[in-house]
Structures
1.
Amino acid sequence: MLFPEQVTVIRPGRGLHTQLRLRTGRTISVLISRAIRTWNETIRWRVDGVVRERPLVTLLVRLDTSNQSIQDFHLLPKIDRLGRFTIRLQDPWLDRGERLASLSNFCDAVKRVCVRCR
């Protein structure tokens, strides 16, 4: 089990942002992204910008189209965009990181993503 042995919540999220600290000392930013319908009824996910957390490794959690449950997880080396932005279901921006099928391999994925961002 991932929690609580390897991860501690160090800043519970107000709204959709949270910070975690791994046992290794690395801080991870967690962003929950809500699904929205755009002008042509396509589904996109709105990502609220972070200021101080942008350089941190970020776990992006996308909710399903009803915003009731988790659809998928993406671990990114950092958020390189300012302000709020949207992403598509298959967005090339997500390819900078790693998609996680579950949180069971979260810590190993953090190591792999950190190696890529050096």
2.
Amino acid sequence: MELLKKKSLYADLALILTQAIWGFGFIIVKASLDIIHPVVLLGVEFTLSAAILGAYLFFKRKSLFQNYGKGLVLGFILWIGYMTHVIGLSTISATNAAFITSLSIILVPLAGRFLFKKAIGIQNIVAVLIALIGVWILTGGISNFRIGDVLTLFTALFVALHILFTDKFVNEKTDPLTLNFQQLAVVGFLSLVTMAIFRFPVNVWHTSVIWTIIYVVLLADIFAYVAQTFSQKYTLPVRVAIIFTLEPVFTAFFAWIFRTEALVFSTLVGGALVVLALLISEIPFYKFFRFEKQRI
């Protein structure tokens, strides 16, 4: 039991690290999008990530296509999430996109209940609501709701589905590295096809773009998704969703560190509430109160 608790703690810490990586990556990627189209960036980075991970698996003599149906499902879900995010973000404000995407914290327990009959604990409901309030304060909520916001809502849905199906597959004794190679390859392939169909210009040779690609390939794609997949064997989907709300917190923090944005009071309050929600989801209050033990 103690070993399981330690693994759960390490899993949550690894997921927090992924949010720091993605939060910093958002600043780097944002600076490169004036040069390269986001679909082109997705195609290049995910294809390179899959190639590197695939080469490692080949060297280790592991099957690249074992249980490939699971990788196809995860990859397609991830790709749809990225596409709706890219299209939505081009028509709405960044604050709207950040908040609506964070709605996945509500969709994870709801979709988990609907798809996999998972119970929703009271403690998790409280944590989710506090995190949602924190993200609302952090991002400023929603204003001028448009069609792009609807597309971004689909992003939140597919983020939730990716968390839930990752949880399902890793607990079916699927090899996490193989699963990651497959999902990365699917996202890369579909993005390259989209890039070819719409004939987006391939501006990858600019110095800042090259550094961006190196960062996202090694850290934001290979390390972060592998860490997420391994971690979800030892933590709960709803806790993963709550941890994912730390991404805008880290983005705001790094933006302040690098002086691209000011750190205002609402950012501090919103970030503090998200951290509080994470602590609530971690502390086993059911030992002190008669709450039902968490199951999702």
3.
Amino acid sequence: MRPTPVVLVLALFAAPAAAQIKAPGEETSRNVHLISHIPLGEMFTTGDIEIEQELARPYVYVARTLVDPGFDIISIRTPNRAERIYSWRVQDKALHAGIGGSDVHYFKVRGRYYAVVSFQFLQSGPDADYAAGVFDVTGLPDTAGIREVAQIRTKDQAFGFGGFHTVYPYKHSDGRVLLFGTTAFTSEAVIYDLEKIVGGTPAAQALIGRIPNGASPEKWGYHDFYVAYDPATKQDKFYGAGLGAGYFVYDVTRPEEPKMLTSITGVAGLALAHTFQATPDGRYGVTQMEYQYAPVRIFDLKPGLEGTVKTISRPIGAWAGNWRLASHNHEMRWPYVFIAAFEDGLQVVNMMDPTNPYTVGYYDTHSGSLLHGMNPATSKWKPAEGNEIFNGLWGVDVRNVDRLIVVSDFRTGVWSFKMDGFEGWNGHQWGMPNISSAQDWDNGPDGAPKAQRVSLR
């Protein structure tokens, strides 16, 4: 008996579900090339990632999460023979519960280099108020001199656990090196003077500003964010993903007095505002919402910044890989968006036309079947698999000078890649400001010494 057309259609849709178990690297585009891979141990203990931008300092920082809270340093002095050279873990880690080490970045103050790691621990264990640790890493590759020089601790635990989920060091246009942090206990983002922090000033005294959470200050905190200088308006701008409330852009030229410039709210299907970055000219916002089936959405910020609309509510473009999944974080190097797309791995998207973004390269680092990630609620913050999207790539970063792409995978560790046709990045080569998440710690966000910046204004 021949099958009916309906049966054939159902079979076509059902067949792929049984064939989704795959090995890392099984799905990759020919233009993305593996440089190195380092497994880091137990699944779901690998967090966010950052690479230093100077070739003379070939170091990658990786946050370690859940039952292994801390951070690792990987040397890529020989890129195809990357090696882990340092690991730091919180004391008595078995007594701690919660996300652990969530985010990690590096920064430079007065000629010295530091790593800052954010932590989130539950009240059921120690260090529930340990928000971030600052470590002097100037002496690398000699790891003997690495030491924690400062801690940022919080006291209020109104939401059940403290700490910072995300931190973002930023070289402000006034010359200061600032740290933006998301608090788990208030709706605000907070701003610290990092030179004061590393100089021994208590965190409470180094706190210089607070950024309200736009539309619902009584309910929602921030998740991820991005801070960048806008040469056209001569403003430092904060782009914050306000969890359930929306996305908000603030003028932080005077970080002591933030002023909201525009917002993205009332978006159809907005269940969770997770990640927010802007193009180098500040015109377009690229957002992620981190729930199953949610695409990456692109918004035109111009109507809001010019005041022609009260809030922005409709995207002008969207992108998705596997529609059944979701994505987590991304990095902007115009016109490319490098996306850590969970079980879809690394996805590189061209958004030269923001209304029609399209994939130009990919490499799947995920191991196993789809929708087999961790559910924090049922796993009680222990590594355990379930029917969830939280698996595959967590973080991504790009070293501008030589186009090296590094990613961190929940399960398979740290990977590095290069992509044909992407030969490094400088915004001026694309007719854009040379603005990205990569900071010029010596010269400031617009790439000119402070005295020259002042003379040009």
